[in-house]
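Quick one:
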Amino acid sequence: MKRLLKNKFLRYTVIVLVLLFAAEGFILTVSYFAIKMHIFNDPGAVDFNDRYFQDIAKADELTKNDTTHNNIPRITKFYQNLNILNYYYPHNAMQLNKAYLMHENIWVAEKMFSAVRLELIDSTEFNADLKSGIVANPNRARSDKNVFEWMNIIEWEEFKIAVRRDSTIIDSVSRVVRIEPRLIVAMLLGEQMRLFNSNRETVKTVINPLKILTVETKFSLGVTGVKAETAQKTESFLKDVNSEFYLGKSFEHLLDFNTADIATERYNRLTNPRNHYYSYLYAALIVKQIREQWLRAGFDISHHPEILATLYNLGYIVSKPKADPSVGGSRIVINGKHYTFGSLAYEFYYSGEMMNLFPYKLNYW
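Output:
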């Protein structure tokens, strides 16, 4: 009797194990084909404020190409606007002032103010004061928060601490690829904020206490969320002299492999939890390649982090050079407010935040 029960137990155990392995195999197979068919890809969305982004871009191109070199009226207007902003959001007014004093570039300062104004596009009182040039209610209560609402959450503070630890690596990558460090961080930000929002329990129990960045290991890889398929394209474009994404001979060997097992080496280099160098290197090269493609087509998006981030997020296949590209990408909800990958990159880049570590280097390309 005991032997019979024992045999039944073993038989049922084997059946259960076989079923479990079969189920796992089925899930892995479905996942593999789903990834290949792009079923899990977020199709992205055009940002709600896309029309305003395009209006800002057109206005900024005019001022950027101003050859009069008479900046005094522009500086005067900037400080007049800054004074008004100080009655609403003193923190952001201080950031803009610091940025102008640090860089002495009125075009950057105006771009930064445009980002703030876009955030306050629905504030009737603020826009009325801008139009009149004076503050109608100087006794109004001033906010002690950041005008960019997502920068008031705890995850933003944790993100800054984690990125500060990686600043040396980011600077190293920027020198190798010749891309602005701040732009690399703008790509990193969207991916990390998306993860903060989609996996909040992990953030609370792991990310927040340790002050580290999330390293993805499944559908996207590393801290910058590079898909294996995208990484393969990045590698091939470096060596394909006929590709519209080709960067030149000096870049050809940046991603060479040391072993015959390329897939495993690629995975390990992107998901290394202790060294994020390759995560940043792939991200920087993707942005550089996209920028090169657009330059060859006659469109310079070098100073449009919102467009570069949108295309970085959606992939090479979506990158079609044209005069009026849309801002968008993956949709991210933070504290109930909707953002896109491109809009978050834009707001960070022109916020002035972390400026001491990642200053503006417009001619770094």
